[in-house]
Amino acid sequence: MSDSRQPAGEPVRQGEGADGFPHGSKYPLFVGGGLFFIGLGLAWSWLFLIIGIPVELYGLWGWTREYTIEEFERGVVPEQKRQLLGVETGLLGMYMLIVSEILIFAGFFVAWFYLDATRGPFPPDGYPGLTVWLGATMTGLLLLGSLTARYGRIAVVEEGDRSKLVLGYAMTVGIGVLFLAVLAFEWSNLLAEGLRWTTGPYGATYYALAGLHAGHLIAGLVLFGIVIYRARVRDHFSANRNLMVRTAEAYWHFLTAISIAIFIFIYFGTT
Structural domains in the chain? Predict the structure, then answer.
């Protein structure tokens, strides 16, 4: 397998024509089919989840491997040459994803502001408030993670140094795990003191917002893990080919921005 790899930065062997885009893939069909059965399972019967979840995971795994590893090592046209409006299509796709996710989070913030305006400030009488220093700690951790992610990105983009990339992104993953541990500690205290997701609209909105952010963070950890694997094990990325490094960093900065908003409007704003 190692003999078939193409080192980062070598001229591509495929896709040098006018189009330069990779071949079609079968995996989007599995991703779409998996989502269809998962939807049926959530709306109708859990039995459909038995089909939908494995199909979805297979599609995501195959599509990710095909795009991030196989195409890279076969010498398919570099990501930087696939552009739309002067921006790499992969990076543009990440920006579009971030914008759509911001709209989702904005809906939860609007719901929180509505509750504050119609039901009075959080927390409701008889229930615990949020711990500001824990919120500040979590936000500080993600800010630190943004710095380590930037360190890793600059190392490979400007210096072609994969070892520093792995170090910076591994530190970011460790910081993300620590964030989740602090959040779990916060939740355990709130649950012990009686604030649950079933405790009226405030409880439901807080846990939905914080849980949505935590879920996105876990997805970010997976994304960073893929980058680390590719750089450490497959010898991917260089000053010429580093699209996934930059998209992962952009996603982490988005997570940091959401954490700052949660701290300002949810933690600090309710004290």
Answer: 1-77 (no CATH), 83-270 (1.20.120.80)
